[in-house]
Amino acid sequence: MTTAVVICPGRGTYGQGELGYLSRHFGDPALLAEFDAMRHAQGQDPVSALDGAKRYSTTRHTRGDNASALIYAAALGDFRALRDRVEVVAVTGNSMGWYTALACAGAVSATDGFRIANTMGTLMQEAMIGGQLVYPVVDED
């Protein structure tokens, strides 16, 4: 089997050309419905509604709270399709892709990864700032 290192994409990777990507490629409708329900509970547009919009809107689709959910869902869906054909030997992520990498690597569940990515995107949108810091915490174990 072919091996691969997966690099999960960060902010800016869901653009006009990706509109409708989830409806065409996301292989787990039940999981997408969970993501939609999570966003609905937060008073946010469902991911499937954003992806299914008739037209791409920079104002709507690139907002931190919307972009993070779209990017996470698209990357996670791609990873899940890939892992059936390729032996993934490592996973990493760029910027917001770090949160997707946590789920792809199995450190958190798919829904917890979505919750993390959506929360970070929402916080960045509310504060109108970007950037994340990761603080590793280690001890003798």
Distance from N terminus to C terminus (CA atoms, Å) equals: 34 Å
Model regions low in confidence, pLDDT < 50 over at least 5 residues: none
Structural class: mainly alpha
Order of helices and strands: EHHHHHEHH
Count of alpha/pi helices = 7
Structural write-up:
The protein has a single domain (3-127), classed as Malonyl-Coenzyme A Acyl Carrier Protein, domain 2 (3-Layer(aba) Sandwich), CATH 3.40.366.10. It is 51% helix and 9% strand. Strands 1-2 form a two-stranded parallel ribbon. The radius of gyration is 15 Å and the shape is globular. By secondary structure, it is mainly alpha-helical. It has helices at residues 21-25, 29-41, 47-51, 58-61, 64-82, 97-104, 110-127, and strands at 3-8, 87-93.
What would a concise description of this structure say?
This protein is mainly α.
Sum up the structure in keywords.
mainly alpha, two-stranded parallel ribbon, Malonyl-Coenzyme A Acyl Carrier Protein, domain 2
SSE blueprint and pairings:
Blueprint: E1 3-8, H1 21-25, H2 29-41, H3 47-51, H4 58-61, H5 64-82, E2 87-93, H6 97-104, H7 110-127
Parallel strand pairs: 1-2
